[in-house]
Amino acid sequence: MSYPRTRMRRLRKSETLRGMVRETRLHRDDLVLPFFVVEGSGVREPVASMPGVHRHSVDQLVLEAKSVADVGVPAVILFGIPARKDARGSGADAADGVVQRAVAALKRETPDLVVITDVCLCEYTDHGHCGIVEGGHVVNDPSVERLAAAALSHARAGADIVAPSDMMDGRVGAIRSELDAHGFEDVAILAYAAKFASAYYGPFREAAESTPAFGDRRSYQMDPPNRREALREMRLDLEEGADVLMVKPALPYLDVLAEARRTFDVPLAAYHVSGEYAMILAAAERGWLDGERAMEEALVAIKRAGADWILTYAAKQIAERLA
Question: What does residue 54 show for φ and ψ, rounded to 5 degrees?
């Protein structure tokens, strides 16, 4: 009986050997933790569909952010939930808005933590859409004006990076022009460049209270079957001044992420979204899989596909394990 000269198992027989030949490694510097910020004081409200995730008031956010920084997570991204919403999303660019106050508090108390702000209107509008609605339709250019104003207000509050997530045409260029015109040339833009109209956003919409009151977001978010179009979107955002490009969601679009890695020599981010996070925990709660291993395996897949940054609700737990 002949035996193979090449035995792939030779380098798998111990954890030390497996580590020595490991091709893809998660690092704490890869992680960005999303936070939901609400009005009030002393608020730490659990999100039912996202175990381990809470809505925080600004004071509680600062406390949690300090503990996140202590375990080595380098960055957070903030989503604001105002007390009052209206058709224009007035709270999005309010100087005393919940995100603006949260940014200022974080930069004061945790100056080394990178603070990213989500720039969108969906959390602030009473209709739940990502832009201005006229005649039953989300209109592009008036929405872009509002988004640029929101981004400028975040920069004035001290944000390091603004992240437009609306998918309106031309919003990256408008935001870049607005920031530069007011002396914020050093504020970076993380563009949700390939954001798909996905079924995986459900738990987020509960957390952010942003479910559309009518229709859906398919007229402005991307159609899931389209990969070539995603690359066009990413190229356009780069031309308009984006510093980092993002694919959202992550796991169902690893092919898009991998193609973007081959195509663009810029930092890439991927958002391991609420539904991806929640379904792992739901299965783990039923004993159907090992939740910790499954979560880490999912993030390794995102890193292996080409992401430099991974936005994930599991960032703190993963960072603790990596430590």
Answer: -135, 160
Q: What distance in Å separates the CA atoms of residue 189 and residue 127, rounded to the nearest whole number? A: 26
Which of 13, 85, 248, 316 is catalytic? The answer is: 248
Bridge partners of 53, per DSSP, are none
What's the chain's average pLDDT?
96
Q: How far apart are CA 244 and CA 222, in angstroms?
A: 19
Task: Tell me whether the omega of the peptide bond preceding residue 4 falls within 30 degrees of 0, making it cis.
Answer: no
Q: Is 303 a catalytic residue?
A: no
Domain ranges in the chain? 25-322
Long-range contacts of 182-185 (CB under 8 A, 24+ apart): 182/152, 182/155, 182/156, 184/152, 184/155, 184/156
Q: How far apart are CA 286 and CA 257, in angstroms?
A: 31
**Catalytic entry in 13, 107, 195, 303:** 195
Q: What is the CATH number of domain 25-322?
A: 3.20.20.70
- The sign of the CA dihedral 16, 18, 21, 25 is negative
- Catalytic annotation present for 316: no
- Using CA atoms, how far apart are residues 283 and 281, in angstroms rounded to an integer? 5
The tens digit of pLDDT for each residue in 221-259 reads 999 999 999 999 999 999 999 999 999 999 999 999 999
Beta bridge partners of 194: 247
Per-residue pLDDT tens digits for 147-180: 999 999 999 999 999 999 999 999 999 999 999 9
